[in-house]
């Protein structure tokens, strides 16, 4: 996902996980070596325990359900990958700002938290597996509004957007009239109330909202083409090519056998593992 400034539920957290710089990529030098227990590849080959850094407070990707169990789309994908590889997973919950720094320092074997390696600094320090989810811009309108079929159709319509966000800029560039809001929750409320025609935001954030609010009276009006979507994968330190290949193989196997599709439908109402 590209950097954006949004507020409310998942949308605010998407920015934290996928945009901007962080402590893990600002420090100089190569990643720290793997922990004393051995390399990631050795743990995978020996069917050992792999430590995974995640937030645990980032619904619907990684969070605790009502019983206190750690779950979410990213968490359940990780468990499915572990089952494919025959390994055990130990989740270590940490704040986003410390997550990639912890990976670099060897506290974790990998990170799963909707991370896209969108900056040169991240790409120089970390590698990413095959993508297990994709996201990009999406427009939501009222269910009975059929005016938006392609991006050009928003010209002249009113868009509820935060003025400083990439999505506000996107709406202005497309010729929409901006109705200023403080965040995604307010934007969706204005669309429901017919005070705005539509709103742009991240597709996973909006799909999460639509899944949790089936009676909202809103629908997906337009989704960005595949070429404009970014993927999230398992993040590991550089020089773990063989281990990463095994992880990516497991991701692809889960895509092929329908597991990723099933998990996407469970948490988002549709398959988010394909562009």
User: How are the strands of the biggest sheet laid out side by side?
Assistant: 4-1-5
**% residues in beta strands:** 15-25%
How far the N terminus sits from the C terminus, by CA atoms, comes to: 13 Å
Helix content: 25-40%
Care to count the β-strands?
14
The poorly predicted ranges are 1-37
Question: CATH-wise, what's the superfamily of the largest domain?
Answer: Periplasmic binding protein-like II
Cα-based radius of gyration, to the nearest Å? 19 Å
Structure annotation, total helices: 11
**Shape type:** elongated
Protein name: Bacterial extracellular solute-binding 3 family protein
Pfam families: SBP_bac_3 (PF00497)
InterPro entries: SBP_3_CS (IPR018313), Solute-binding_3/MltF_N (IPR001638)
Subcellular location: Cell envelope
What are its keywords?
single chain; 275 residues; alpha/beta; D-Maltodextrin-Binding Protein, domain 2; 2 domains; 14 strands; elongated; Solute-binding_3/MltF_N; SBP_3_CS; signal; Bacterial extracellular solute-binding 3 family protein
What does this structure look like?
With 275 residues, the protein is an alpha/beta fold. It has two domains: 9-134 and 231-268, 3-Layer(aba) Sandwich (D-Maltodextrin-Binding Protein, domain 2), CATH 3.40.190.10; 137-223, Periplasmic binding protein-like II (D-Maltodextrin-Binding Protein, domain 2). Helices cover 37% and strands 20% of the residues. It contains eleven helices and 14 strands. The strands form six sheets. It has a three-stranded parallel β-sheet with strand order 4-1-5. It has a three-stranded antiparallel β-sheet with strand order 11-8-12. A two-stranded antiparallel ribbon has the order 2-3. Helix 1 packs antiparallel against helix 9 and helix 4 crosses helix 10. The protein is elongated, with a radius of gyration of 19 Å. Residues 49-271 form the Solute-binding protein family 3/N-terminal domain. Residues 1-23 form the signal peptide. It is found in: Cell envelope.
């Amino acid at each position: 996902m590209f950097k954006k400034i949004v507020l409310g539920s998942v949308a605010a957290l998407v920015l934290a996980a996928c945009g901007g710089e962080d402590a893990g990529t600002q420090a100089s030098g190569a990643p720290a070596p793997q922990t004393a227990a051995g390399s990631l590849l050795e743990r995978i080959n020996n069917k050992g325990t792999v430590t995974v850094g995640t937030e645990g407070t980032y619904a619907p990707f990684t969070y605790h359900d009502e019983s206190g169990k750690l779950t979410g789309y990213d968490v359940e994908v990780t468990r499915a990958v572990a089952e494919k590889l025959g390994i055990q997973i130990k989740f270590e919950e940490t704040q986003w700002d410390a997550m990639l720094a912890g990976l670099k320092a060897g506290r974790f074997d990998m990170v799963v938290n909707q991370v896209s390696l969108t900056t040169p600094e991240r790409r120089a320090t970390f590698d990413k597996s095959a993508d297990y989810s994709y996201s990009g811009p999406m427009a939501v309108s009222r269910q009975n509004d059929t005016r938006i079929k392609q991006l050009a159709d928003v010209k002249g319509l009113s868009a509820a957007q935060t003025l400083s966000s990439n999505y506000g800029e996107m709406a202005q560039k497309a010729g929409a009239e901006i109705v200023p809001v403080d965040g995604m929750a307010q934007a969706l409320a204005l669309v429901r109330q017919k005070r705005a025609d539509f709103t742009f935001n991240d597709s996973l954030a909006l799909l999460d909202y639509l899944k949790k609010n089936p009676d909202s009276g809103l629908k997906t009006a337009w989704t960005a083409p595949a070429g404009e979507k970014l993927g999230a994968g398992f993040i590991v330190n550089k020089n773990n090519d063989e281990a990463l290949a095994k992880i990516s193989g497991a991701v692809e196997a889960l895509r092929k056998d329908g597991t990723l599709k099933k998990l996407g439908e469970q948490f988002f109402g549709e398959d988010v593992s394909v562009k």
